[in-house]
Amino acid sequence: MKLALTPAERAGLRSQAHALNPVVMIGGDGLTPAVLKEIDLALNSHELIKVRVLGDDRMARVAIYDSICEELGAAPVQHIGKLLVLYRPRPEVVEVETASAFPHGIARGAGLRGKAPQEVLVVKPSRSATRAPSRTRITVLGNERVTAGGLVKRVKERQKSLKKQRG
Q: Do 82 and 99 share a domain, yes or no?
């Protein structure tokens, strides 16, 4: 599945890619699984990359370009000579910052079991690169946790032994 770009987005990405150096080189063996994995890693970390294809066959370079875009879900930005420019936005990653709601702690025997409540700052990136990420403060109790997607989940009740239930 190729990612589709508007002409204006493609022009902006071309201007950003002008100063980049190639991060992956495809040699005489062509597009191997190892090279594909390296391109995937580079796209995950940089979003916009240049790939140099060694070889003189233009049709082979176009075929490699199309197969990379299809297999990795990247958008073709530019193909000039032996350089290919690819773009794929980073997958959404949610950052979770914790700060204790009770900085001085709670006295022992105060009736709370497990961890004290914590105030958690959930930062979700926006879909647009120009907008600031959304920030939400959530209070998480001792029996709750924050998932990678920013959801609050409760801990399941611990199973008790049948022997202990009878006795």
A: no
